[in-house]
Amino acid sequence: MAFPSSADRQALTVTSAKLVIAGGFGVGKSTMVASVSEIPPVNTEAWMTQAGESVDPLSDSSAKTTTTVAMDFGRVTLAPDLLLYLFGTPGQPRFWPMWDDLCRGASGAVVLVDTRQLDASFPAINYFENDSDVPFVVAVNLFDGKLTHSLEKVRDALCLDERTPLVTVDARDRRSTAKTLVACLAHTMKTTPTRA
Amino acid sequence: MTSNPWVRPYVLTGGRTQTNHQLYVHTLVSSSHFDARAASKLTPESRRLYDRVRLGPQSVAELSAHCGISLGVTRVLLEDLASTEHLQINEGAYESPFDHRLLKRVIDGLSELG
Ligand SMILES: Nc1nc2c(ncn2[C@@H]2O[C@H](COP(=O)(O)OP(=O)(O)O)[C@@H](O)[C@H]2O)c(=O)[nH]1
Ligand SMILES: [Mg+2]
Q1: Contacts A–B by Cβ distance under 8 A
Q2: pLDDT for the residue numbered A195
Q3: Contact by Cβ (8 Å): B114, A124
Q4: A21 at interface of B, judged by CB pairs closer than 8 A
Q5: Domain ranges (residues) in chain A
Q6: From the CB of A89, is ligand 1 less than 6 Å away?
Q7: What is the CATH number of domain A13-191?
Q8: pLDDT per residue over A7-20, tens digit each?
Q9: What is the value of pTM for the model shown?
Q10: Out of B92, B103, B104, closest to residue A15 by CB
Q11: Which chain A residue has its CA at the smallest distance from B63's CA?
Q12: Count of beta carbons in the 10 Å neighbourhood of residue A129
């Protein structure tokens, strides 16, 4: 694992930033996080199960639901003193209280959409439009390597505000993912005051 | 309330639910040295966290996942370990996630990844 060496640790104050990857089930969130992450996908099922068990050990339904949660996080070391964390949101509505926690302190969010199932990402778009102060962009994951509908049509179908950037991404490709994250951060820069 | 699995169990945390620091899931925790004697006096959960931090600065979420301790409990235990100076909670160099100096650095770093 690529942790900073202990010498670096002494000398540097390491800063972290966070971006959130949201969207419906199967739109490519895990794929996108994994494409740039330097750490293997962490088994967050265990994490959630453990957390679930501690809440309500008497109700086996709570334990059962938590085992189906998949939430990814990834890490990218951008400089010896700068780490970027990516968090994929858990999709199920019952875990939405976690979205607030995940989004707190985020520098931006990417909502991934799949044009074959646009509605899967409606809740995520609603969340960032209405319930969050985190600036977001929408990215169409190009499953077949090409855009099957024009971006304009996708924007219409999503009823997306014209000020919200709409881009395309190949979630499997590190470079494409990095470019999308840059677009997301550039949007945050554009929509926040210089010294926010 | 019980539908939120990030609630922390009472016992492990002595009933505390509040943390003093702003412990985001991505907040970094580090240690400047490892004290084996101090480690041996910790509870098993705190000890797992303390041991893990030896590897280098890590986020609250990583520590929670790797130590198999729920996020809420992890937050409270890390807070304790910081107050007893076993660990340092890294407040980060920027006050806001929207600080343009931070955003610019992340953009530059990501651009070099390609
Ligand atoms: N062909 C292709 N498959 C993809 C792409 N992105 C994701 N997938 C596949 O689609 C499925 C769902 O992706 P996943 O990342 O698990 O979606 P999640 O539920 O949003 O985390 C997986 O089998 C991926 O391998 C892509 O850009 N192209
Ligand atoms: Mg997934």
Answers
A1: 178
A2: 63
A3: no
A4: no
A5: 13-191
A6: no
A7: 3.40.50.300
A8: 444 446 899 999 99
A9: 0.85
A10: B92
A11: A47
A12: 14
